Amino acid sequence: MDKFFKKLPISESALKKKRICQDDLKSNSKRGLIETNLDNIIADPGLRVKLSDYNVNDRDEIRRKYLLKGPCQPRHHQFPQTMFGNTPRRFNYAWFEQFPSWLEYSIAKDAAFCIFCYLFKPEMGQQSGGDSFTVDGFRNWKDGLSRLREHVGGPNSIHNQAAVMCTNLMKSGQHIEVQFLKQSDLARQEHKTRLTASVDCIRFLIQQGLALRGNDESDSSTNRGNFLELLRFLGDHNEEVKNVILHNAPENNKLTAPEIQKDIINAMAVETLNCIKMDIGDDFFSILIDESRDISTKEQMAIALRYVNSEGQVTERFLGIMHVMDTSAHSLKAALEEFFLYHGFSISKLRGQGYDGASNMRGEFNGLKALIMKENPSAYYVHCFAHQLQLALVAVAKNHVQVAWLFELAVTLTNIINVSCKRQELLRESQFIKIVEGLQKGELLSGTGLNQERALKRSGDTRWGSHYGSLLNIIVMFSSIIDVLEIVEKDPHSSSDHKATTFSLLDSLQSFDFIFVLFLMRDIMGITNSLSQALQRKDQDICNAMHLVQISKQRLQDKRDKGWTELFDEVSLFCNNYKICIPDMNTIYVARGRSRRRVQEMTNLHHYRVEIFYNVIDMQLQELNSRFTERNTELLLCVACLSPNNSFSAFDKQKLRRLAEFYPSEFSNLDIMELNCQLETYVYDVRADSDFAQVNGIGDLAVKMVDKKKDILYPLVYLLLKLSLVLPVATATVERAFSAMNIVKNRLRNRMGDSMMNDCLVTYIERDIFKSIDNETIIKRFQNMKSRRGQL
C-alpha cells in the first residue's frame, strides 16, 4: 500500500491525542476499571479516585455530576490547627468567599483542592504541573492566600484552561471533543413537549406513591404500566402531546426509557432537597434517626432534620434514607458523616440528637450519641418522648397480671374472629342489626361519620395507640362479639380446639373481672393516647412536651383520687345491660378457679379498688416518673424559663444565662455579658406588649418575635430560643418515613434500588415542597445531568 499512497505528516496535537488514547486502552486492559456509580459520587476531594482511573466513556458524566454538585466547601467545619514553627495556623473559611467556584477543602486530609484541575488536568498531559491541588492537597496555611492566587495565575494558566473546559462542557451538553449540528426550533419544541409530558406523568405517580413500570411494556401489551398508560391517556386528551409522543417521537429520543424515568425522579429529589437546604441555610439543626428493614430485608437508616426557619417556625424535614450493612454505632456514625458530607452539612452545626432507646444509639460510652458528642459536645441527646411513653405502657402490661391477662384475651379474641371470613361477616352483620335497632329506638344518633363499620384489628406491638383502638372496639361491639362466639361454639364444623378456646373466651369475657380491667385500661390509655398524639406533632417543642407529660401525670393522679366511684358505676351499668354478675363488694373475694386455701382474706372492694385500680394507676405513674427524667436535667430546667405562659412567670435570668453556657460555640464570655442586659430589657418589653399576652409555648413565642421584629432587637435572646426549639421531642418523622417506605417499596416492587427508593421517598414525603417546584427547574436539572440527544 505504501507503494501507491504517500503517508501524510501527522500533527503534534493528533499524535498527542493518539498517545493518550493508546495509554488509556493499555491501562484499561491491564487493570480493571473502577465501577462508575453516578448516584453516590465521593464528595470529599481527599478521598476521591483519580479521574483517569474511570472508564474514558464515563468521564464526562462524572465531570457533569461534580460540576452540578459544586465544590466541597464545609463552611461550618471546625478547621484544625497546624503548627508552622511556633505559630498555629489553619484553613481560613473566608477563602471560600474569594474563590467560590473552584476551591475545595478535604476534612479527611485537612487540605485544599481545586475541582477544575481535578476534572480536567488529566486531559492536559504532562505539562499540567504537580498534584498539590488534585491528589495530595495544599496545606501551607502560612502563605495560603498568596499561594491560592498564584494557583489561579493568568489567563493561560493551567487552572484557567481547566475552568474554560468546565464551562464548555456545561454549555455544550455533549462531549467536549465532539461537535453536533444545531437542532431546529421545531425539534427543540417537540423535545421540550415530550419531556414536559414525561415530567407531569412522573410527578403525578410519585406524589401518589405508585409504581411506574409494568410487567409487560411491549407495544402489544394491554397494560404497559402506570407511566406509559398515563402518558397515553395524556396524549388522548391533548392533541399537541399526542402528535409529539405517539406519532412523531424519534425512536432514540422518546424520553420514556427506564433510565430516563430514574433521571427525572432524581432531578425532582435533588431540587426538593435543595429547597430544604436553602430553608435551613447556615443555621444549626438537630437530627432524628431510626433504623428499620425494608421488604427486601435490607437495613435502612432514615434521617430527618429539625430546625427553625426564617419565620421562627419549628420544622422537621425528611432528608433521605441510607442502606447500612450493620447497625453498630460506628457504622451508623460513618454513614451519617458520609451523608452530611454529600449534602454539605457539618456536624459542628448539630445541636440536638433524637433516637429511640436502643443501646447502639444511646449508649453512654460507645453509642452513636456518645460518638457524636465526643466530636461536638453541644449536640445534646433527648430520648424520644413517644418511645418512652410506649415503654411505660409496655411495663405495666407485662408486670401486672390482670392487665397482661386482658391483652392476652384481646389477642386471642382477634385470632378467633379474624381466622375466618365467615366469622368476620357474621360480626359485621350482627353489628349492623344492633345499629339499626339502636337508631329505631333512639339510643343512637345519626349523622355524618357516626355509626361507621368497625372490626377487630390486630394490635401492633410497637404502636400502643392501636391497643387503645382495640379496647374501644371490644366495648362498642361487645354484644355482637358474644353472639358470634356463641355461634362458633355451637358450629359443628368448628374444630374441638376452636370450640374449647371459644368456651374459655365466653366465660372470661362475660366476667366482672374482665369488664372492670377493660374499662380501667380504656381510661388510662385514653389519657396516654392523647399525650402520644400531641408528642408526635412535628412542631412540638421540648418545653411544651414536658408540660404535656405533667398534665397527663396530673390527670392520672386525679383519676386515682376521684375516679373510683365513676368507674365502678360505669362498669356496673355495662354489666347490668349484658346480664353479667356483679359481685358484692363487702363479701370475701374469691379468685376465679382457685382454691380458698392459703389465700389472704380480703373483700371484693379491697381487691378491685386497691389491688387493681390503685395498683395499676400507681404503676403507670411510677413508670412515667422514671422514664421522663428530662424534667430534672439542668438543661431542660433552664429551657423551661423561656416559657411565655402566665406573663413569663417562669422567667429566670440566672438560669437563662446558664443555658447560654451550654452552647460555648454560640455564646462567648462577651456575648453572655451582653445577654444579661438584653434579658432585662426583653422581659420588660414583652410583658408590657399586649401582643405577647396570649402567646402559648416557646414555639409561638419565636413566631411572634419574628413577626414583631424583636428577633432583630434581641438577637441573643432569640438565639437562645432557637437553640431550645431545635431540641428533638419525638422520632415520629422518621417513623412515618418507614410507613411511607412500605408504600413505595412494597411486595411487588421489592427489587427497587436504594437510590431510586430514596429519591421516591424524598418527593413522596416532602410533597408540599415538591409541589412548589416548577417543571422548568426540574427540566433544567435533568438536561444538565448528562449528555442528552435532545437539547432545549
Automatic annotation (TrEMBL):
<dbReference type="Pfam" id="PF05699">
    <property type="entry name" value="Dimer_Tnp_hAT"/>
</dbReference>
<feature type="domain" description="TTF-type">
    <location>
        <begin position="87"/>
        <end position="182"/>
    </location>
</feature>
<dbReference type="GO" id="GO:0046983">
    <property type="term" value="F:protein dimerization activity"/>
</dbReference>
<dbReference type="InterPro" id="IPR006580">
    <property type="entry name" value="Znf_TTF"/>
</dbReference>
<dbReference type="InterPro" id="IPR008906">
    <property type="entry name" value="HATC_C_dom"/>
</dbReference>
<protein>
    <recommendedName>
        <fullName>TTF-type domain-containing protein</fullName>
    </recommendedName>
</protein>
<dbReference type="InterPro" id="IPR055298">
    <property type="entry name" value="AtLOH3-like"/>
</dbReference>
<dbReference type="InterPro" id="IPR025398">
    <property type="entry name" value="DUF4371"/>
</dbReference>
<dbReference type="Pfam" id="PF14291">
    <property type="entry name" value="DUF4371"/>
</dbReference>
<dbReference type="InterPro" id="IPR012337">
    <property type="entry name" value="RNaseH-like_sf"/>
</dbReference>
